[in-house]
UniProtKB/TrEMBL annotation:
Protein origin, superkingdom: Bacteria
Protein name, entry field: Flavin reductase
SUPFAM superfamilies xrefs: FMN-binding split barrel
Keyword Oxidoreductase annotated: yes
Lineage: Bacteria, Bacillati, Actinomycetota, Actinomycetes, Kitasatosporales
Native source organism of the sequence: Streptomyces spongiicola
InterPro entries, per the entry: Flavin_Rdtase-like_dom, NADH-dep_flavin_reductase, Split_barrel_FMN-bd
UniProt cross-references to Pfam families, sorted A to Z: Flavin_Reduct
Length: 181
């Protein structure tokens, strides 16, 4: 039997954002592209996305307060989230690039389809799509926590997701046959 040792009390990261970012990177996340439609559509890569409630169906995304997308979400009643699939790292990098074009031109570099319930672009080949109506927005320090009520969804259950862990894009490892759970 092994003994685990906890970190010493007071070993906080206050004042050390690099260490905090590194520690948070130990938590693997999926990778999404959040989009809004309208006259000036916008997309943004985000890994701060999660389910909140099944009834009503609510999801959240956290967006930096200084991000163009934060303003776009504040001005739109609807948005969409595309959960990227394995092999879509180039899409994630495109929508994370702050020098990409504004408006509809930024979607010329990727395959997309129009949302059925919203006019927000959905990334083709994604593992799942969620179209949402704005539910609420909450202060989250240097980010805004944006909740949406899911109105339409699509998923491809056989499509593995793109994963982000320790600052790198990754893919799920194949499970060993007959391995222990």
């Amino acid at each position: 039997m092994s003994t685990l040792t906890a970190a010493a009390p007071g070993a906080a990261v206050v004042g050390d954002p690099a260490r905090l970012r590194r520690a948070l990177g130990a938590f693997a996340t999926g990778v999404t592209v959040v989009t809004v439609g309208g006259a000036s559509p916008r997309g943004m890569t985000a890994n701060s996305f999660t389910s909140v409630s099944l009834d009503p169906a609510l999801v959240l995304v956290c967006v930096g307060n200084d991000a163009v997308m934060n303003r776009a979400l504040a001005e739109s009643d609807t948005f969409a989230v595309s959960v990227l699939g394995a092999g879509q790292e180039d899409v994630a990098r495109h929508f994370a690039d702050r020098s990409r074009p504004m408006g509809a031109e930024q979607f010329e570099a990727v395959d997309w389809l129009p949302g059925r319930a919203t006019d927000a672009p959905l990334i083709a080949g994604a593992a799942a799509h969620f179209e949402c109506v704005r539910w609420g927005a909450y202060d989250g320090g240097d980010h805004t926590i944006r909740l949406g009520r899911v109105t339409t969804l699509d998923d491809l259950p056989d499509r593995d997701p793109l994963v982000f862990h320790r600052g790198r894009f990754r893919q799920l490892a194949a499970q060993a046959q007959g391995g222990a759970a």
